[in-house]
Specification:
Two copies of one chain form a homodimer. By secondary structure, chain A is of the alpha/beta class. The first copy, chain A, is built from 14 helices and 24 strands. Chain A folds into three domains: about 190 residues, FAD/NAD(P)-binding domain (3-Layer(bba) Sandwich), CATH 3.50.50; about 110 residues, FAD/NAD(P)-binding domain, CATH 3.50.50.60; about 140 residues, 2-Layer Sandwich (Enolase-like, domain 1). At the A-B interface, α3, α4, α8, α10 and α11 of A face α3, α4, α8, α10 and α11 of B.
């Protein structure tokens, strides 16, 4: 419903109606609790309005060759946003207050949130506060580049026409997905990345594969480079490595995100935070009792499903008076470029911190399996880093047409302690891409089965070295 | 290598170099055993030459709009066949003998196989015999229909031109995949199915969904019908339900398959068989010690991965002198039409034999999830039948663009005893189609969590009823 009672102390005040905030609000409502949901911008947050939803809609529209792809994107986005808005306005337990929130010092087990909005200033009282204010794109200024050419994820989906030449600054998720879409739309696509490879959070084989795939479709890569200066009259970008890009229509900046913490009053409320976001544990708990933070505002996750996963634990923490047991589930990542990228398990740097003696890496390229042959797949693979002997999956990464759907097999394995040894013999349908996983388990078995004592010793050495490293660091 | 020594008793004689036979031959060779591989037709069998490989290549070529799709199909098929042939001719432990085999009565723990081929008649002696002779399409004659219009999977991939109008007889896997391909190629497609629905081995929701999807793309359905008579001059098919199909260029028969057992000498050797195929257990063992049968020749499985799965157990039975423990793994099925169909677990009739009180069915349509919205998915769902209380997966079926890659999550769950309750909380990447599985586990939890004693009792009643039914049947 719209509006709240300033004299009531609600079960929770949720600040920000994006992926994380909506999950908490709806979850607590389902448990019968009354919640105030505070949003100064659009319900649905970045995911619905300027993130996952419009980007996936654009990838679809561009992939199937729609005549007016941006009209499709805007229709889908606005339809979902209107639906989510309506749901919040009509939920009996959710009290929607439009405005910008500021935390104050808590008193008597209750928190007061001040909201400034179109209807003036109001106060919200609640037993718990959830900060789910999200993030916004990091902006940079490029000499000579006017705002009419400059885009971020917040305005790219408002385009009316397809740019002839688009420059994507940054080699992360946004650039990979938008490169895929704009190549389909017929644009000339340039990616400018400061470091030496795209998608630096993944392992180098992912970068090399996706760079080759994009290049084969006509994309231009400018790595170890940034835009030094832009000549607006000539529509030319001059890069630090000497490259020039001519005829530039639009420049999309996708170099990272910064949590939305300004004006929230975190210091007054005593909530600890860093540059990366609010300090919160895997239940969303912050340094202040009863104040939680989920999603991009924390810097712990940067995905909708990551925000949802923590938000579900926050709901449990608030609504269920039971001990907080249970480790968080594995959090997969997916990039919906073509081919898709998906990974789960340790991060690459966490993996590299584990001594190499105790682990084994197995890679199967899709070009080596039968479906790769029939479907002409040049770029793609499944790679698994596993503990020796047990085959416990430390990290899995997939580059494949359907990687986002395949990664769930590894997510389930990690969550349930199923290693490659247990997976040996599992039957995958022929000739699915998933057969690559069957080959990997076979390779693991033939690499480790015949000399089990040696494998056991290798695993133990790895564990001991890991323990020593931890003890001394 | 080519040829064998008629005086040597080999570890095994493998009859038929298709999916199952090649797996056994290569597997035993890897263990260092000498094997005679007998093949009268092409190495690679149906899968490589007239089945999975050319059909997937055609689906790909048609889907991406290649100019000469059949040239692609033939090139891919011939390339793989030549590769497999070369591998068999050059493997040090595999002795390739070209010809048609006949079993004889076994004597002194060794078996004698007589082979008639291009080089005359020879004898092969082996400790073990593996019958992997595959199957062939069931043929029917239609009044008035000449052989120049009649196709099966054995000649359809030899087409040079795209037929304007094609009639697919039978509503099974072959017809669904070929309907998808020929619709992409621009043909007018008719499916004639004797029963009231397509893909009758799956549950009715699958049939309804795939029929609607094909119809939306222009396919014509003629269910509860068969071709009564064909008028070749008018190119018109007259159906038993009164429908007529005019301008017919080709008629593809895909109504089922029959095991290749003729001339094998099974009676002489004492190997028991039925109309559906050789009687064999899940290790491939037949009624005669040392004689095994795998793949389509048994009627136990009709897929390449099914033949492989049994063949791997046959290798273990022959090569490893350890007790035969371990249940067979779950066998998924996949149909590569668009959307794809994939299922795993009990068959529909096995499921229906379980009393309804103890189980629960959960369905999530892709149109209800966010990716369904952005990607305009009208036809598709994930459906799970699970045991109440535990959430043990009895059967899962998926109709989705990537169903063949998604089904592995359920295969792993079934193999490892992970039910929906354990899956609760598993994180799927947003906005992948796999999120439907997350909704299903949530729905299972909310349907069963609040009244656990009642759920436990429902499960027990189901188990008791199942036990009673078994005891009295």
């Amino acid at each position: 419903m719209i509006g709240h009672d300033p004299l009531t102390t609600y079960k929770a005040a949720v600040i920000g109606a994006g992926a994380g905030g909506l999950t908490v609000a709806i979850g607590l409502s389902t448990f019968g609790h009354d919640v105030v949901l505070i949003e100064g911008d659009k319900v649905g947050g970045d995911c619905t309005n300027v993130g996952c939803i419009p980007s996936k809609a654009l990838l679809h529209a561009a992939g199937v060759g729609m005549d007016d792809p941006f009209a499709w994107v805007q229709a889908k986005r606005d339809g979902l946003a209107a639906h989510e808005d309506f749901e919040m306005e009509t939920d009996d337990h959710i009290h929607l207050v439009r405005g910008w929130a500021r935390l104050t010092k808590s008193e008597n087990d209750a928190h007061t949130v001040c909201v400034s909005g179109p209807d003036g200033d109001v106060e919200v009282h609640a037993e718990n506060v959830i900060v789910s204010t999200g993030s916004k794109p990091i902006e940079i200024s490029i000499e000579g580049l006017g705002t009419e050419r400059l885009l971020t994820n917040e305005d790219i989906f408002e385009l009316k026409t397809i740019p002839d030449t688009v420059v994507l600054v940054g080699g992360g998720v946004i650039s990979l997905e938008m490169a895929t879409a704009f190549l389909d739309l017929g644009s000339e696509v340039h990616i400018v990345e400061r470091t030496e490879r795209l998608i630096g959070t993944e392992d180098p084989l992912v970068s090399a594969t996706i760079e080759a795939a994009l290049r084969s479709r006509g994309a231009h890569m400018h790595t170890s480079a940034s835009i030094k200066r832009f000549d607006d009259l000539q529509q030319t970008a001059h890069l630090t490595n000497g490259d020039t890009i001519v005829g530039v229509d639009k420049v999309l900046i996708g170099i990272g995100r910064r949590p939305n913490l300004a004006g929230l009053g975190l210091e007054d409320a005593g909530v600890k935070f860093a540059d990366t976001g609010i300090i919160a544990d895997d239940w969303g708990r912050t340094s202040v009792e009863g104040v939680y933070a989920v999603g991009d505002a924390t810097g712990n996750t940067a995905t909708t499903h990551g925000a949802n996963a923590v938000a579900r634990r926050t709901i449990r923490a608030i609504a269920l008076p039971i001990p907080k047991f249970g480790k968080p589930r594995a959090l997969p990542n997916a990039v919906y470029c073509r081919p898709q990228i998906a990974s789960v398990g340790l991060t690459v740097s966490e993996l590299n911190a584990i001594p190499g003696t105790g682990r084994i890496r197995l890679v199967k390229h899709l070009s080596e399996i039968d479906r790769g042959l029939t479907d002409d797949i040049e770029y793609g693979f499944v790679a698994v880093d596993a503990e020796r002997f047990t085959g416990k999956v430390l990290r899995a990464v997939i580059v494949a047409p359907d990687a986002a759907e395949m990664i769930g097999m590894f997510t389930i394995m990690i969550d349930n302690g199923i290693g490659l040894r247990k997976l040996f013999g599992t039957v995958h349908p022929y000739p699915a891409y998933s057969q690559a996983i069957g080959f990997i388990t076979d390779d693991f078995a033939s690499a480790t089965f015949r000399k089990l004592p040696r494998e056991w010793w290798a695993m133990m050495r790895g564990r001991i070295a890991k323990h020593r490293r931890r003890s001394t660091s």
